[in-house]
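Session log. Operator J.P. requested a structure for one protein chain; no other inputs attached. Running the standard single-chain path with token output.
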Amino acid sequence: MKNYFSKSKEELFKLFSVGENGLSNEEAQERLKKYGKNQLNEEEKESTFSVFISQFKDFLVIILIIASIISLISGNVESTIVILVVIVINAILGTVQHVKAEQSINSLKSLSSPKIKVLRNGEKVEISSELVVPGDIMLLEAGDLVPADGRVLESFSLLVNESSLTGESENVEKKSEVINVEELSIGDQKNMVFSGSLVSYGRGVILVTQTGMNTELGKIAKLLESTKQKTTPLQVSLDNFGKKLSVGIIILCIVIFIINLFHGVNILDSLMFAVALAVAAIPEALSSIVTIVLAIGTQKLSKENAIVKKLKSVESLGCVGVICSDKTGTLTQNKMTVKKVYISEKVLDASGLDKDNKIDKLILQESILCNDATNDVGDPTEIALVNLADKYGIDFKELKHTYPRISEIPFDSDRKLMSTVHKIDNDIIMFTKGAVDSLVPRITHILINNEVREIKKEDIKKIEETNNLFAETGLRVLTYAYKILNSEKEISLEDENNYIFIGLVGMIDPPRAESKAAVEKCIMAGIKPVMITGDHKVTARTIAREIGIYHEGDRVIEGLELEKMTDEELKAQVERTSVYARVSPEHKIRIVTAWQSLGKICAMTGDGVNDAPALKKADIGIAMGITGTEVSKDAASMILTDDNFSTIVKAITTGRNIYANIKNSIRFLLSGNTAAIIAVIYSSFAGLPVIFAPVHLLFINLLTDSLPAIAIGMEPSHGDVLKDKPRDPKEPILTNSLAISILIEGLIIAIFVVIGYYIGYGSTKDALKGSTIAFSVLCLARLFHGFNCRGKHSIFGLGISKNMFSIIAFIIGFVLLSAVLLIPGLHGIFEVAPISMRDICIIYVLAFIPSLLIQLYKIIKYKK
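Structure written below.
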């Protein structure tokens, strides 16, 4: 980027081949052809159909499609229909969740002002902002949205709000003077304006230097286009699990197919047996159940003021190890507040004034009278002073009406002073407030303990020491002074001298009340909170120390320092750094990337346009719903509707619990499927007929298993999950301990399923009845097993009634199974034989015994 801030007006005119009268219409047209329209590029979106088709690329889905074709060839139409319906439903669910059109670039485009005033041929004309070109001279005034980057040629009290770009909450006063430095961050370029910022006061004449994708806003758009969203740990785990399961199923099916051929079974029947095994092994409803569990989690989070846009982001919350948080509006209140007052050689809290005391009363009066703001309209600094007086019951309207302004000298950046004149109790008083270095040299007297005396060197030293003390704690300092005039008159700059010192007022954008407690919980949970802000180093460190992010020994790095660091140097420092100040959008992405390179799951909070690329890059991007720009909301995966940092802690708690519930759901599904696989393998080696029809296994997996698995996903949190450290994102979802539990539980259920088959098969070798009882035992045993998988403790330790959904799921599954067994019209569809009451009692007993054994084991191991 060319350092336009360091160039004079003459140099800029020469560089852009333009004069005081602006461009001609012909020249503007030529430049429009050369540079293009002043707009941001739009990202090409993937079609809904493409997303839908991509859902069928999963290997498990391909196996199911093959199974449906074999079922159709063998004449088993019902199984084919059931399998295909399941596949299509899963594809629709996946499409609905993945097709979320990226609105980031469109939102960025909408930030451009539709109309702007420029000089063309020496005349002021209004044109569409997309027709602005480099070299145009813009005329900005209060309320305008800046459509392009530009250099300030003339400033008439021009104040610009750049919070969405720099993160600073205060308006920035713009000036036209050259800044003679080589490098300067965006926030310090006081003679430049940037696309997407808002003119809040005054007016200015601006030479356009960059348009479209070359602006600072355009650079953010490029970052958004080039930034790829991270795959969540759950996605990685499920993908790896799916691949391993697929390979295992293929090998197993091939082995069983060969064994059957060896036993003399014909090819078609052998294929059907392999299909039965594939259907038994594949947890068909797993992806749907995970989606539903995550969706339920999002509903819970929405009630806690956190809207999750991407379902799988919910689970990622559970292993967040770092939260990189924007300061302004996220950790702080985004409004200036008076914290300290220095009067009569004493430093008082803002709440420690006495409005009946003369000097305290003067402070409060000057806060209102030498002020252009109201309670909520005006410069944030002046609003803070109005609010200070309001705390003491002083009505600003009434006070201004009682003591109207006789004369004034407005604030400007050269003097750094503001003066007003009022008649108070027969005295004509001139109030002046401003910067310490500008006002103190003009002071001749001092008001101490309600008495005026000449100011001494010791007094000035104390004032300067107090000013330094305030500044070191991140406070912005104003000096208050006054003088008595001889008569009512229009004051001039010559009158701004010979003052009586009243005091100093220190203010800051304070932390949100909940921030400190939320940070404490993050640290307790093993999560590293990091502040990233556009504010100055001292202010950022002060806020960070106050809320517990910064501790002695931690590093504070500024943007220019970070700019000079290599990625490896940053990676070496990132774990010891708690605060980053004066940073740009590129810096935020580098910080997030550095944490991710250390294997950490990184969350990033923010509300501005400048936060959007990092929000998209982070594993979890968290935008502010109230103060956040549309760009940040579109780039984020989660939005806080209350803009409250503490809501993130609730979301992390929910995320950790959801992951535990998903693992328990997987345990439930796979242990049941393992039981079916073992039974199928046993029947194959024992030379028995097919123990299950494919439709039996689909009925179990999709109808009677789905509801218990969803109910397990709704299990409330047991114990304080925040006391655990963040989960290792590289940890597979199917750990060794979980795999062993699945295998043992599956084996226990399979034993009683096979016993049921032999009872039904009996001496008459009734394969259909044996298959019916085996199917019924497996189905009901898995329904009982749903209670075992709610958590690691027994059902008594977990609380029988704490998850009513599990009871409801069991009842629905039991009713569905009973309908299949007892309604003759369903026997043909589900390939079951009529059974007696004795058979039903056998089914109940055999199905209950596995859960009884598992519960007894849990009671013995965990003592509850």
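Operator note: The mean pLDDT is 84.
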